[in-house]
Amino acid sequence: MGLLDIVPAGVVTGDNLRKLMNYAREHKFAIPAINCTSTSTINAALEAARDLKSPIIIQFSNGGSAYFAGKGLSNKNQEASIIGAVAGAQYVRAVAKAYGIPVVVHSDHCAKKLLPWFDGMIAADEAYFKANGEPLFSSHMLDLSEESKEENIEICLQYLKRMAPMGCALEMEIGITGGEEDGVNNEDVDNASLYTQPEDIWEIYKAFSEITDLFSIAAAFGNVHGVYAPGNVRLHPELLAKHQAYVHEQLKSENPLPVFFVFHGGSGSTEQEIATAVENGVIKMNVDTDTQWAYWIGLRNYYEAKKDYLQTQVGNPEGEGKPNKKFYDPRVFVRESEKTMIARVQQACKDLGNVERL
Ligand SMILES: [Zn+2]
């Protein structure tokens, strides 16, 4: 039985999202969450997944959302980030079904200082829910890992209570993921705090599951955001097995993998590390840095190959009067970026076993 036997094509929320998450955990694969900043990058992610017959997650960061709305807009009080995230989600909704695959539309890391952005998106979900019986977004991510564990859980619960009745899922983060992303710099934290403890996972699981099962946890197991030269931090995805076993033991559940885990900071991980993570209940892995690079490389290669056609509007090696329009049309050079991004998204899908799942 494939995914399209149990969920429809297009954006999935609520029950359909639950089915998709369970299906991934049961069949031991994870869905890449591609950070998108434009319709071009969204289309590339959708096309990549469609051609592999698999679902995909489109996610918007705070900065990516503001960029989506336009760099010319003020982001005072998170206005541009709210408008951009909502516009991005609406765009995904407008095209997703045409690609014939299940799509999760998600917002990425939201730290405490960015909560007005989160509030704006939840308000948009509530308005959309009123009109359509489902939220605009499939899910959102709250990253309060810089706060105390108590405050982290408490704020998450407040939002979860608003999101659960709409069937909107929450992803939370516990422990510290190293590296730098959207202005949060954790490059200097000590190693001990880079590994979440099983007791913490249980505390979260217990509190959240009293409200809903639509939540996932980004636990720290030595992950680093971005790509860095190999350093002191070591990735230990096998720790996720301990978390699952601990929660399983507390719950006495039938399912040996009760927790939905998310893999942040996966750039540069080995195939083995990714496989271990997926084996232990990771159903989503964030992909940002590597697809940014891929998008750039497509353009760079194009420029290098067509350099002599890109210096003036008219005149190239084929003749002084030859027009260059077909070389500098953005549909041509942006498409080259899309092609290399598509290839990189497909590589992520293959690494995670997200292939032929429809
Ligand atoms: Zn994170």
UniProtKB/TrEMBL annotation:
It comes from the Eukaryota. Pfam families: F_bP_aldolase. Pathway: Carbohydrate degradation; glycolysis; D-glyceraldehyde 3-phosphate and glycerone phosphate from D-glucose: step 4/4. One of its GO terms (molecular function) is fructose-bisphosphate aldolase activity. It is an enzyme of class 4 (lyase). InterPro entries: Aldolase_TIM, FBA_II, Fruct_bisP_bact. Keywords: Glycolysis, Lyase, Metal-binding, Zinc. Binds 2 Zn(2+) ions per subunit. One is catalytic and the other provides a structural contribution. Catalyzes the aldol condensation of dihydroxyacetone phosphate (DHAP or glycerone-phosphate) with glyceraldehyde 3-phosphate (G3P) to form fructose 1,6-bisphosphate (FBP) in gluconeogenesis and the reverse reaction in glycolysis. Belongs to the class II fructose-bisphosphate aldolase family. GO terms for biological process: gluconeogenesis; glycolytic process. CDD domains: FBP_aldolase_IIA (cd00946). It catalyses: beta-D-fructose 1,6-bisphosphate = D-glyceraldehyde 3-phosphate + dihydroxyacetone phosphate. Its cofactor is Zn(2+). Its EC number is 4.1.2.13. This is Fructose-bisphosphate aldolase. GO terms for cellular component: cytosol. PANTHER family: FRUCTOSE-BISPHOSPHATE ALDOLASE (PTHR30559:SF0), FRUCTOSE-BISPHOSPHATE ALDOLASE CLASS 2 (PTHR30559).
